[in-house]
Each structure stands twice: as C-alpha cells, then as structure tokens.
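Local shape tokens:
==================
===
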Amino acid sequence: MGNNCIWAVTYLASLNEEDRKRFRDLRGNQGQLARTRRCQQAIHESIPSFDPPGLREFMETEKAQTNIRAKAIIDRIEKVLQTTILEELRREFGSDDTQWWTEGIPKQIRTKVSLRAEEDDSRRGGKEYYFDLIDYRNILTANWDLFNKLLGFGGKLNASKERRTAWISDVNESRRIVAHGSSGKSVTLDQLAQLEEYERWLNKQITQIDENEALSVGDSI
C-alpha cells in the first residue's frame, strides 16, 4: 500500500495548476469518490494489476468526459481561426471573393472547398464554411508574412513556418480522435492540457489585435 500512496502523490504532483484546482474543487461524497478514483487510475496506469472494483467503469466515463471537453475547445479554436484568418485576408487583399478568395487561398484548397460547397448546394453559406481545420495551416503558410507574428506558435519569428504552424496539426489530430468516438480512443490528459494551452495563447493573440485596433482608432480621432 505504501507504493500505491507514492504513485498517488506522483499523480497529484504531475497536475498543472488548472487541473489541481479542479481536483481540489471535488467536494461532497461524489467529489471524494472522484478524487479516489483518479488516484486509483494513476496507480493502475503504472501498475496494471491494480484494478479495484468500479475503476474501469470510472475510467470509461472519464474518457468520454475528456473527449467532450476537448471537442468544445477544438470547436472554439476552429471558430477563432476561421474568423481571424478571414478578417486578415479581407483586410490584406479586399473583401470581394475575387480578392481574398483568389489571392489569399491556395488553389488546391479553393478547388476542394468549391466542390464541397457545390455538392452541398452551399447550404452552410459562403465558401468559408467548408474549410477543414487543417486547411488553415496551409493558408497560413501560403501567406506567411501576414500570419507569422499573429498565428505562429512557439520558437522565434524566424523559425520555420512548418514548426510555427505545427500546433494546428496537433489540434487536428485531437479533432480526429473526438470525431471518431466509436474507435474507442480518447484524448489523453496531456493532449487536453496542450489544447487548453493553445486556446489560452490564441485568445491572448486575438486580444492584442483588438487592443491595437482600439488604440489605432483612438489615435485617429
């Protein structure tokens, strides 16, 4: 039992600040049970033979909840990317389709998206509603001078665009997992933490844009 306590302590030490707060916030009978189960899960992952009654059912429920949280984050990230990228392209090339669409979107993506919209009779609306999440990475790299500082993550500004846009591939990989729940796979806690970091960073980037635009408007008055 002493080793089990060590594994539980190791699990608690591995939590980031936000997850620690969630753990501390688990109160009442159900909260205490959840705390116990999560510690048991950490022990089980290190010692597979440790398998107390009810743990497997708890782990399956946790997987489902993790995927739900991940999907919500991914949906928000995708929406912010769509809005931000389109606004920047329209600002740079012009709001007419012959401008931002033709000059800002790589031809391969234009062809695929146009076909998809045609097959759907454009029921979603404009072409911008038919992008895949991973398309945004290709749009960024095709307009790198425009997006490097704004949407490049990690490393220095002179780092490769492949490296600074790899975060979108990470998000897309998690999206594939949550989109195919029947496969039995789930987003790991590390992947969920990474998604949360990406979202915090992205929101900070967008906030800075809004603040800079507000300052520009103020200076022009």
In short: The mean pLDDT is 82. DSSP finds eleven helices and no strands in the chain. The two ends are 70 Å apart (CA to CA). The longest helix spans residues 55-93.
